[in-house]
Helix-turn-helix transcriptional regulator
Amino acid sequence: MTTRATSPVLIGRHAEAAALAAAYRVAVAEAATFAVVAGEAGIGKSRLVREFTAGLEGARRVTGECLELGADQLPFAPFLAVLRRLRRDLGVEAMRELLPPGDLSLARWLPELGPAAVDLDPLQGRSRLFEELLTLLERLAADRPLVVVLEDLHWADPASVDLLAFLVRNLDQAGLLVICTYRSADVGATDPLRPVLADLARRPGQHFINPGPLSAAETAELLTGLLGTEPDRGLVARVHDRSDGNPLFVEALATDPADGTPAPLRDWLAAELAKLPDSARSVLRAAAVAGHVVPHALLVAVAGLTDADLEPALRELAEKQLLVVGSDGYAFRHSLLRDAVVDDVLPGEWQRLNARCAEAIAADRSLVAQPDAELAAHWEAAGERARALDAAWNAAAEAERSFAYEQQWRMLERVLSWWDEVPEPETRLGASRAAVRQQAAEACASAGAFERGITHATAALASAGQQALRARALATRGFLNRRVGRDGDADLEAALEVLPADAPVELRGRLLGSLAINASRWNGDPQQSAQYADEALRIGREHGLLGVQATALLASGRTAGLAGNSAEALRLFRSAGELAKAASYHYTALTALLSEAYTLMLSGDYAQAAVVAGEGRTLVYRVGQGRSRGADLAAVLAQALWLSGRWSEAREVIDDALAEDPPAAMAGVLLDQAAEIALAQGDLIAAQQAVDKSTPLLTTAAGRETLPVYAAAIHCRVALAQGDLVTADRILAEALADPAISGDPWSVLRAGAELQRRLADRPDQLASRRAELDALAGKSPTNRPALLAHRLTFTAELTGELAAWDAAVSAWREVAQPYQLALALFGTAESAVTAGQRVAAEERLRESAALVRELGAAALLDEIEQLSVRGRLDLAVPETPQPAVDRPFGLTSREIDVLRLLTAGRTNSQIGTELFISPSTAGVHVSRILAKLNVSRRTEAAAVAHRLALV
């Protein structure tokens, strides 16, 4: 990985730069001003000041640095540096003219200034020196603005601190800004600099600036500058977490983002720790062993000290900001700092301190939030494998009860890693290795770690002795393979075959339910699904197994939905969800919500689909299934928002879901959704970046070289937008050859129709593709309004006939998809222009333009404007005088439409959906209506409308 040494641009710090700019304005316009920039090491103080001063035009800038050489060395070091740099800028003669006549005390610093003044009284000489420097700075500032930067004042020698205190009290000349930087952690209560800072704080007009850590978004921006390319979300999350937003740490980790600490950063941290006294380092090592956050009682036990002995070391560590003091304990300021301290612990000390920690937690489990997990880690580090195995097993069980499935499978993996190091582990735990592997596979399924779960299920299958366990492993592996896009039917069917007659009845019911769901797919066997579902439902009802009943109802609902019976499907999904919640079958309950939302979306009720999917998104976090079902629900929610024209909301949902690092297949789906939005908004670069990221995810997840059908359409359209017809044709050909094409045909068919128009000069390909497209369209479903609208639009795109386009427009008016309506209107206008019907073309083009402006569909708007130029069409809406009776109270025709819906009890979102405007625009119309009717509430507006028959 190649990186820059530092980012080419300053990231974030807008507020801090604005504060410096404000200080500069005050200094120039009113009087000398100080700006103090304080913060921890590496937070970017010097970079901030450098970037700010570099942008000042017309100002003289000079910097002096303090040196880390001890308090008694090089007195006045920063001011000496300032004076020498001024000499280089001004020349000796010009500098001499600015100073008082006669011998100078400053000549002791710069012999070029002439003979040094001889003072019998040292105090008088010191005073003269201070006055001469004051005079020089103020006279320079009187000529043009002067910015003096004093860096790293935490290392300032006592003489420099005295001179700074003198300047604070005496500088007054307008045009002078003094910027001071220091590390807040290195200036304790007794530091000589502290009173000077306090004096500054009491004076009006001074500026104190404290840069904080970078946000995750700013960390991503910094990494982009360092790496020269946009980093993946996993890298951003890892670096932001480990760096705590410190820019210096981010820069170091960008070159080595693995779990280790890069050598230069490790050496720097070690050097900082070496400055501590032995007692403080000893306490810090004990705290590092105990964890990132350490309760006071636990630290006392691990350090082996009394409170009285511990307190001085803790006070120093807190003052140095190495440890942050909380209500009942301490936390390391940076995880990287803790790593550096851990590296300093000797092996024997490491074992001893971990053993103390484990013993303390075992004696008082209330010391930590997760005692078993902590015990597993500490006993392992102490070399006590048997105790560690017991603790990890208990921690896994507790994690499962808390819905912390990721922690559960990680704990189970630790159990498996110690299996051969502990005598008779099966007897200790009461479970075989295969059973533990199966538990890990099931935990992975809930946590969304599907590939890892497949590995565990396969290993469990290889060593499982009991047939029931083999059946569970097969069922789990089959389920997981389905989740990653591969065929899992064979495993599920094999599981049913090997299931013994005396197997738990719940296992048989769950297996039958899974088979029913698999067979209820669009290309499955509905009769077989019904048989499995009926048998599972019978078992569930006979034995009171609510979860089994829920799974069976889910399968029946899916079959009903595919048959076009949406009302029955919704009823079954809701019943399944209620049963699953009652049985705490969280995955099934979420699947029921997902299925309900998807069915509502297919039925055209996008608003309610978004509500149901949002409810599911709330539930997933409570039950620990954010990665396994959260991304699925996010995809449906985003799709519902996209189709209803709420594009910015859809993009927020996608970004939130991607930030959670979903499984590859769902990440690919979300990226393709982002690409579709970006393409419509005219951002072709963002669309291409999204499909570039999604392609390897989707092909790997599906276990094949070609894209899944649902992704092919958007990838084809991105290629078309770039003018890459060869790639678009290849993608289309692969999609048409895919036997799964009938599962999601219309998006591909629409992309294919667009390609056909672009390939009009290549009749050899046109003929073959047209035949394939027509054949597929002839057998694709049209049993829903949106599907019929797609069918009519497909026909219009291929024929270009005005009547076909008018039919498509009429169909889309019945479906609340404003973007598709805008596309159809544009097609109608284009066809009308060709037919010489300019009036009809103008009407349709104006309506299309109004829709796309509301949506922000820049790509289509560009095409509309080009067509208006080519066809000499006027996009301006003519002002038609309205009779007074038609516009009572000065209401516009659009406000009358809004008032009609408001009177019917519609919300702003529902008004927006019906009128193809955003909820915020609907809210603006409602506010204007209330003002024109001179009422304050919607109910009053409705009453006025009814009383006066306004609607």
Q: What stands out?
A: The CA atoms of residues 823 and 848 lie 7 Å apart.
